[in-house]
């Protein structure tokens, strides 16, 4: 079993709410741990994330401990960065054993070719895409980390994310669908997995399957890949609930 989670946005609310979100996430992962062969995080795991050479943002150590435990037991974890958390250095890879991807990639999971991408750059308007690429370039990232003290840099990141509230945008959802279908035509992947849209969906087209795990902090939905099927699920107090599934052709 491969699990897909997207848009957790850890750190966006007050501490009590965040602790509840983290606890439900840990409950879900723990309940499925015996069957998991790979965990994929499809971007925006954190609502704001800036990693420094010797400093990392505080919080969510229980979630990070689970990731470290899983990788130590031989369960791979892949983390595709999103538009809220692109400024990683090497902490997740060196300390937690997590593979961090800064670009879209086609990977083989349970013998299935899967295209992984958060999706924000792919569907952005030209100016927005150029701006986001600039903000991820090593030079401005180095300047930001170097010129601003850590507390000030993180505080500024929090303030910026507060100006841009996360909401479901039908235009974004439709652009992601078009992009996914284009990838299926051009990349010859069997499955495309994207985040960013905050709308959980699993669609079948003649070209292949498209999964968006949805927004965990709002709906607690996630994706499951088995050797013969792909499913969209929701975590409930009674355990995982399958919302829709398709057989792999």
From TrEMBL:
Listed InterPro entries: Calcineurin-like_PHP, LpxH-like, Metallo-depent_PP-like
Domain Calcineurin-like phosphoesterase: residue ranges: 2-199
GO BP field: lipid A biosynthetic process
An MF annotation (GO) of this entry: metal ion binding
Coiled coil region boundaries: none
GO cellular component annotations of the record: membrane
CDD domains on file: MPP_YbbF-LpxH
Pfam family of the protein (one): Metallophos
Keywords: Cell inner membrane, Cell membrane, Hydrolase, Manganese, Membrane, Metal-binding
Protein name (database record): Metallophosphoesterase
Organism: Rhodothermus marinus (strain ATCC 43812 / DSM 4252 / R-10) (Rhodothermus obamensis)
């Amino acid at each position: 079993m491969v699990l897909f989670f997207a848009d957790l946005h850890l750190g966006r609310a007050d501490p009590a709410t965040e602790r509840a979100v983290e606890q439900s996430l840990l409950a879900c992962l723990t309940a499925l741990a015996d069957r998991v062969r790979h965990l994929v995080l499809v971007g925006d795991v954190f609502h704001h994330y800036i990693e420094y050479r010797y400093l990392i943002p505080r919080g969510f150590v229980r979630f990070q401990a689970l990731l470290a435990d899983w990788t130590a037991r031989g369960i791979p974890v892949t983390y595709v960065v999103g538009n809220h958390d692109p400024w990683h250095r090497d902490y997740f890879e060196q300390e937690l054993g997590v593979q961090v991807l800064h670009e879209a990639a086609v990977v083989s999971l349970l013998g299935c070719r899967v295209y992984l991408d958060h999706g924000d750059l792919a569907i952005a308007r030209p100016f927005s895409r150029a701006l986001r690429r600039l903000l991820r370039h090593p030079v401005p990232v180095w300047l930001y980390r170097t010129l601003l003290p850590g507390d000030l840099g993180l505080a500024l990141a929090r303030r910026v994310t507060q100006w841009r509230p996360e909401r479901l945008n039908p235009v974004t959802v439709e652009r992601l669908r078009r992009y996914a279908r284009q990838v299926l035509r051009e990349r010859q992947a069997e499955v495309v997995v994207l985040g960013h849209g905050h709308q959980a969906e699993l669609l079948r087209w003649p070209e292949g399957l498209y999964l968006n795990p949805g927004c965990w902090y709002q709906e607690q939905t996630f994706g499951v890949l088995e050797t013969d099927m792909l499913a969209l699920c929701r975590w409930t107090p009674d355990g995982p609930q399958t919302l829709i599934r398709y057989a792999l052709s």
